[in-house]
Design a protein that fits this description.
Layout: E1 27-29, E2 36-42, H1 49-58, E3 69-75, H2 91-104, E4 113-116, E5 119-121, E6 138-144, E7 149-156, E8 165-173, E9 175-178, E10 188-191, E11 194-202, E12 204-206, E13 209-215, E14 226-234, E15 243-250
Parallel strand pairs: 2-3
Antiparallel strand pairs: 1-6, 2-4, 4-5, 6-7, 7-13, 8-11, 8-14, 9-10, 12-13, 14-15
């Protein structure tokens, strides 16, 4: 399948705030050293995807979670059929993968596809967790000011001119699906770190520190057993992450 899409960056979306899911103030902070962003492009309709998802799922119990790496599973929609769709899929996630393919000058997109720090990655099989990235990137801090409102600051390790973008994904864990279509028809699948929503906001830089605000609508997902947030920094209009951080909004330990 050949795609010739132009580079598209998710636009900022102001979401409706509802008071259904009150949460205490939260704060997540990276170390100065670079934290890896691990993306998996997957689908419930692809028979090759469950092993890749099983590998990603196991990262939930790793001591490096949120500190050394931040995982996100993007369910694409191009495996959907008229009579069945992956309930976690989004055309925006498929478009994000196409943008990566264009960046890599690849003719096709496929599942399962891992992306490590903006680069296509095939080395996951046989590893317990992603390789640790080298070098210092700077400190990324995200903190909530209300249920759905967040402030972000980024202090790059080596201050450089120009602005940044903050990207934030709302993630669901402990999800079970009975698949009724596609190549996994009849199977029960387990999903962790599944992206439910993704927003991207431009940041402004003052005295070498980038500042931004974003909103994630958690109220629609108040019934989920475990929710997390993944955030990462890029240059405007770029895909390659500079720094990442994240953490639990509703911890899976609270329901075990």
């Amino acid at each position: 399948m050949l795609f010739k899409s132009s580079l598209i960056v998710f636009s900022a979306t102001l979401l409706i705030i509802q008071p259904a899911m009150a949460q205490p103030a939260l704060r997540f902070q990276s170390a100065p050293g670079r934290t890896a962003l691990v993306e998996l492009y997957t689908s419930e309709g692809c028979s090759s995807c469950p092993p890749a998802e099983d590998w990603l799922n196991r990262l939930k119990d790793s001591p490096g979670l949120w500190k050394d790496f931040v995982p996100v599973a993007f369910h694409v929609d191009y495996w959907n059929s008229p009579g069945w769709k992956d309930r976690l899929s989004s055309p925006d996630f498929s478009e994000r993968q196409r943008d990566y393919a264009q960046l890599w000058q690849a003719e096709n997109i496929y599942t399962p596809c891992f992306v490590l720090n903006g680069a296509e990655w095939h080395g996951w099989l046989g590893r317990r967790e992603p390789p640790a990235p080298d070098g210092e990137a700077g400190v990324l801090v995200v903190k909530s000011t209300a249920t759905n409102r967040w402030n972000a600051t980024f202090a790059p390790a080596n201050p450089v001119p120009g602005n940044f973008q903050i990207h934030a994904a709302l993630l669901a864990c402990d999800l079970d699906s009975q698949v009724t279509g596609g190549e996994n028809r009849g199977r029960s699948l387990r999903h962790e770190f599944a992206a439910l929503d993704l927003v991207s906001i431009g940041m402004t830089t003052s005295n070498g520190i980038a500042h931004g605000k974003f909103i994630l609508d958690t109220s629609r997902y108040a019934s989920e057993k475990a929710l997390a947030i993944a955030t990462w920094i890029t240059r405007p209009g770029e895909l390659t992450p500079i720094q990442a951080t994240g953490g639990w909004l509703v911890s899976p330990n609270a329901v075990r």
